[in-house]
């Protein structure tokens, strides 16, 4: 799951996942359109997403098509996010963050 969090930590990778969620089967060239980086940089981001199993790829002749794999996200949501669905916001009312001009107290 660490790979999933690392992969999602980058805004470019999240953008690539957004594009693949809208339309799967995109090539590297299609994913690189309108991005302020080289195709090689996009390919490196895709490699991170593939190693986290967030993107699956398949060959289509000379092209490689990329697809969103939602399973790691579903597993993460089930394990980490579901437990916070029913937390009443009132239970957080006693929480007070440290003021910005004062460092947090560490015992």
Automatic annotation (TrEMBL):
<dbReference type="GO" id="GO:0003700">
    <property type="term" value="F:DNA-binding transcription factor activity"/>
</dbReference>
<protein>
    <submittedName>
        <fullName>Metalloregulator ArsR/SmtB family transcription factor</fullName>
    </submittedName>
</protein>
<feature type="domain" description="HTH arsR-type">
    <location>
        <begin position="1"/>
        <end position="88"/>
    </location>
</feature>
<dbReference type="InterPro" id="IPR001845">
    <property type="entry name" value="HTH_ArsR_DNA-bd_dom"/>
</dbReference>
<dbReference type="InterPro" id="IPR036390">
    <property type="entry name" value="WH_DNA-bd_sf"/>
</dbReference>
<dbReference type="InterPro" id="IPR036388">
    <property type="entry name" value="WH-like_DNA-bd_sf"/>
</dbReference>
<dbReference type="InterPro" id="IPR011991">
    <property type="entry name" value="ArsR-like_HTH"/>
</dbReference>
<dbReference type="Pfam" id="PF12840">
    <property type="entry name" value="HTH_20"/>
</dbReference>
């Amino acid at each position: 799951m660490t790979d999933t969090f690392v992969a999602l930590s980058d805004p470019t990778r999240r953008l690539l996942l957004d594009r693949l969620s809208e339309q799967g089967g995109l090539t590297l060239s299609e994913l690189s359109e309108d991005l302020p980086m080289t195709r090689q940089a996009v390919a490196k981001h895709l490699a991170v997403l593939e190693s986290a199993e967030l993107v699956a790829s398949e060959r289509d002749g000379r092209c490689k098509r990329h697809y969103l794999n939602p399973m790691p996200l579903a597993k993460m949501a089930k394990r980490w996010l579901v437990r916070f669905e029913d937390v009443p916001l009132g239970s957080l009312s006693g929480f007070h963050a440290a003021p910005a001009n004062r460092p947090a107290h560490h015992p």
